[in-house]
Amino acid sequence: MRTELCDVFGIDVPIFAFSHCRDVVAAVTNAGGMGVLGALAFSPEQLEIELQWIDEHVDGKPYGVDIVMPAKYEGKEDGLGTADEATGKVDPDAFKKMIPQEVTDWIETVLEEFDVPPLPANFERQSGVGGGGSGGLLGWTDGGARNQLDVALKFPVKLLVNALGPPPKDVIDVAHGMGIKVAALTGAVKHALRQQAQGVDIIIAQGTEAGGHTGEIGSMVLLPDIVDAVAPSPVLGAGGIACGRQAAAALALGAQGIWTGSCWLTVEESEMTGHVMDKLLAARSEDAVRSKTLSGKPARMLRTAWTEAWLREDCPGTLAMPLQYMACAEAQTRIGLSARTNPKARELIGMPVGQVVSRMNEVKSSAQVIYEFMDEFVETVQRLDRLLEAAEKSG
């Protein structure tokens, strides 16, 4: 399964693992793949702690960072979402004013239906994340992502990945100047070509089966189309890949490696809580649905009472990015707290995950997942070799 990207990054297998959990990132890197930390959920201060920990636990092996610098979001053309020159912070208040009161009131109605109480009076003061951190804004804007980027570049990361559009040219230039490769996710050929023109080194072709933000085209169609369109740029296959057979299919379609995410949610090193873990282990492929309830853009996630509520006739509708996430940030915090003791609240909890959730029915170590990927990949290639030999003999 060794490809040119293995030599580029000095890894044993071209398995790239996206995770918000530092333990998973380190475990995959130490097992011969490349762990990539999703930075979106972290403040710059917390991201520095996470990356410092990873750096101390991989013994110089390569790892990457994934940020979200959306090409488009509500208010961007008006200059919203940029960092203040004096403080370096992104002010969420202008975005908060854009959230309709009817949406806020409707969310409260849903929470009341599931007996989800308000946050404790002193919760925000103690934790600093009562509203999802920075008012629920996090890294959904250019300014927020740049703050995370500044932190990431303090560490010896080997790969910088961007989602929701091509990273800005100046970011790519800075990364290249530091010897860092840049990758970007895409769900359409036209977007892949735009990323290539921007200077992105590696295109991640993500089929609609994938978890999180994803387009409408299936991997079997999307991957070879993008491989042909951006050749000779290397492509990673993503979406619907959680085993060696699927990895072999991606390489057969022209990919030089695989980008994986969902299959790391249920590993031993994952920080998944008990109730969410139970849902993931029991879920079927049809339980992973595309919904705008996370960010305002279509993202595949577990079907829950929360995603279903946003389909009701009384729902005022989802909002544009980043308003949707901001409107729901505190509600998600409340749901998570309530779910510890409230069975009704557990009906609302879920998370982004791909259709391969149907294969995630057992907790394994990250290293075991890597080894099983490789064993099944070898078995698949050998089976195809036998078929080819039989065809040649009969021909």
Key structural traits:
395 residues; alpha/beta; single chain; 3-stranded antiparallel sheet; 13% strand; 11 strands
Tell me the layout of helices and strands.
Layout: H1 4-9, E1 15-19, H2 22-30, E2 34-38, H3 44-57, E3 63-68, H4 93-96, H5 101-113, H6 123-127, H7 142-152, E4 159-163, H8 169-177, E5 181-186, H9 189-198, E6 202-206, E7 212-213, H10 219-230, E8 235-238, H11 244-252, E9 257-260, H12 274-282, E10 288-291, E11 299-302, H13 305-309, H14 323-338, H15 343-346, H16 366-394
Parallel strand pairs: 1-2, 1-9, 2-3, 3-4, 4-5, 5-6, 6-8, 8-9
Antiparallel strand pairs: 7-11, 10-11
Helix pairs in contact: 2-3, 3-7, 5-14, 9-10, 11-16
Give an overview in words.
There is one protein chain. This protein folds into 2 domains: 4-74 and 138-269 and 356-394, Aldolase class I (TIM Barrel, Alpha-Beta Barrel), CATH 3.20.20.70; 91-136 and 305-348, no CATH class. The protein is built from 16 helices and 11 strands. The chain has 395 residues and is an alpha/beta fold.
* CATH top-level class of the largest domain: Alpha Beta
Ends apart, CA distance between termini: 29 Å
Multimeric state of these chains?
single chain
Q: Supply the number of structural domains.
A: 2
CATH names the topology of the largest domain as TIM Barrel
Strand order of the largest sheet: 1-2-3-4-5-6-8-9
Number of strands: 11
The whole-number mean of residue pLDDT values reads 91
Order of helices and strands: HEHEHEHHHHEHEHEEHEHEHEEHHHH
Q: Report low-confidence residues grouped into runs of 5 or more.
A: 125-135
The percentage of residues in β strands lies in 5-15%
**What is the helix fraction of residues, given as a range?**
40-55%
So what's the overall shape?
Answer: globular
Rounded to the nearest angstrom, the radius of gyration is 21 Å
Structural class by SSE content: alpha/beta
Number of helices: 16
CATH superfamily of the largest domain: Aldolase class I
